[in-house]
Amino acid sequence: MYILTEEGRKYLKEGFPENKLVEALKDGPMKISELKEKIENFDIAVQWARKKHLIAVTQDEIELLREPKENEEEKALRKIEEGIIPDENILKVLLHRKLIEKKRETLAKKAERMKGKEITNLTPELIITKAWKDVLLKEYNVEATGKIVYPGKHHPYNSFLIDVRRKLVELGFVEMTGPIIEMEFWNFDALYQPQNHPSRTWTQTYSLKYPKNGFLPYKKTVELVKQTHENGWKTGSTGWRYKWDEKKASQLMPRAHGTACSARQLAKGVEIPGKYFAIVRCFRPDVIDATHAVEFNQVEGIVIDEHLTFKDLLGILKLFAKEFAGADKVKFIPDYYPFTEPSVQLSVKHPEMGWIELAGAGIFREELTKPLGVDAPVIAWGIGIDRLAMFKLGIKDIRYLFTEKLDWLRKSKII
After folding, report:
1. Considering the entire predicted model, what is its pTM?
2. What's the topology of domain 2-102?
3. Strand, helix or coil at 292?
């Protein structure tokens, strides 16, 4: 604890020397010789008045520059007198001026001072000395709302993606990767999507203005994809029967779907049996509304095994809808995709928005797998993970997944 020294008590009673000096100078500048006779502790008064920029000292005269608004040291001394410890910086000044001194107080004395008083918190000294029996404990209102604390945490959507990734890895899936800026070759051609397909026009995909073209992969892979498009190669298909253009295949574009990662992985090499997934950013022109955006995340997955059937695919999709989205109602609708046969659409029922398309899936056609070096059934799906997150986070507008609204971010649950 801190107590006032004799000098500190004197200053508090009679006033600080610098304050007396200021009072003497209010009527104008004065000679130093006159002030010495008038002000007790003159040197101390001048020293601290100058430190506080209150006066200007010439060779034989002192002039008042400004009057202090309040004396911080005086206020601090009064606090200490009342048993309140002031700011650490002002304590250093008071100790330096020897206006206060430290004094260690025994636990018993500390406890003694609290006897008969109303307290809010039990202190160590009250517990050790058992003096808590002699104090009044303030009643607590257990129904009062406590202080709301908003801890640091992942963005709710980012937390959801981390959870999805962790669960897929726990299920034995290996993560695939691929560039955001992709070649049409991997985004379309390797997936057996013809170069004149409507989804490859500017109304359905974005393209790069500069650089416009990339470098195609190994010539053998390119040649097999080309033959499959033109005449079916050795896949048992007749192909699309057109002249395949290598330059168009090399055009660069922002990735339109995660299936481009699957094509790259199949060409790179896969284990059979094997399970692979990717959580990737995709881009497509669209009208932005509560369930659509021009950029979105997609969970792409493939499973390769000699004994896979279409029923296995439906089972996996149903598992995802219930495990990751918590959806109660799921339905499958026949669909068409250039690179899968048969194909299916997965829809789930949102409690407020009704049925929403969540994923497209199917079994990869042999025209896709064989040119990339895989001669086994491959089931594949692409899930709109943004829509999946809407279920999990209980929101009905997809734009909220990327919001910066602090109120929603603070109150959202940690997944």
Report:
1. 0.64
2. Arc Repressor Mutant, subunit A (1.10.10)
3. strand
